């Protein structure tokens, strides 16, 4: 293997490790504030320390990992100022994305997103017939807004941090149940082609998530992300089929 091939292989391995460690952080397998020891991770994944170091650098670059001089890297803890800053940006950009989606999404895309949202709800209620996937309602709406600049900001390197904060804000099962209904209301406004209502509903949805996250942060500075699946005390009302929305 020549030098170029070795470099390409190292980059590919670093990318795979970045995604593997990111998945552990998102799932709560690595908790906020936990140290990321290069030697430990190298043994865990059966690789050398070089790709681990590269993966940690990438995580640091997107704000999920912090490192003090001469200290180990750590998974970032929630910071109230950072939460406010990110949620301010979400209110502005995701609200705008919803308004654009109301004018740009076609009927088939809306129907498909309604179906995917209902599947996600059933999956989180523990339905064994629904296979796991990586569905993200917010990212789907951003893509359907068809705004390259909004997509670049919210769907680029900042996306893993935004998604993790969203999961932290949904750490209480009752909040996640309500969030599904809010998602459905947003889609209903989009289907009605009411851009102002869609924007307003998304802004309200994000503000509720912000308040929920701040409440959870006040209770525990090291809250974990919400688990991938849960059983709420009371099941959420089913989302209406597409022809009833």
From TrEMBL:
InterPro entries: GntR_C, TF_FadR/GntR_C, Tscrpt_reg_HTH_GntR, WH-like_DNA-bd_sf, WH_DNA-bd_sf
Lineage of origin: Bacteria, Pseudomonadati, Pseudomonadota, Alphaproteobacteria, Acetobacterales
Keywords, in A-Z order: DNA-binding, Transcription, Transcription regulation
Species of the source: Gluconacetobacter liquefaciens (Acetobacter liquefaciens)
PANTHER family: TRANSCRIPTIONAL REGULATOR, GNTR FAMILY, TRANSCRIPTIONAL REGULATORY PROTEIN
HTH gntR-type domain boundaries: 11-78
Low complexity: compositionally biased ranges: 225-245
Domain of life: Bacteria
An annotated Gene Ontology molecular function: DNA binding
Protein name, as recorded: GntR family transcriptional regulator
SMART domains: FCD, HTH_GNTR
Region (Disordered): 222-245
């Amino acid at each position: 293997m020549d030098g170029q091939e070795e470099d390409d292989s190292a980059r590919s391995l670093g990318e795979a490790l970045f995604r593997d460690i990111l998945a552990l952080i998102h799932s709560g397998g690595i908790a906020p504030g936990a140290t990321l020891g290069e030697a430990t991770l190298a043994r865990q994944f059966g690789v050398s320390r070089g790709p681990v170091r590269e993966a940690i650098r990438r995580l640091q670059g997107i704000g999920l990992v912090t490192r003090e001089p001469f200290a180990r890297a750590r998974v970032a803890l929630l910071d109230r100022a950072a939460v406010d800053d990110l949620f301010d940006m979400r209110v502005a950009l995701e609200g705008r994305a919803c308004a654009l989606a109301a004018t740009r999404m076609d009927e088939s895309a809306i129907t498909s997103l309604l179906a995917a949202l209902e599947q996600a709800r059933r999956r989180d209620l523990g339905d064994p017939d629904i296979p796991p996937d990586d569905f993200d309602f917010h990212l789907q709406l951003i893509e359907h807004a068809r705004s390259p600049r909004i997509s670049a900001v919210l769907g680029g390197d900042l996306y893993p941090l935004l998604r993790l904060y969203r999961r932290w804000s949904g750490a209480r099962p009752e909040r996640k149940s309500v969030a599904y209904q809010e998602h459905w209301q947003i889609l209903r406004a989009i289907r009605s082609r009411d851009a102002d209502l869609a924007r307003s509903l998304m802004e309200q949805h994000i503000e509720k998530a912000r308040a929920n996250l701040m409440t959870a942060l006040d209770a525990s500075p090291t809250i974990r992300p919400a688990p991938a699946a849960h059983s709420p005390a009371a099941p959420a009302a089913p989302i209406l089929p597409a022809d009833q929305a």
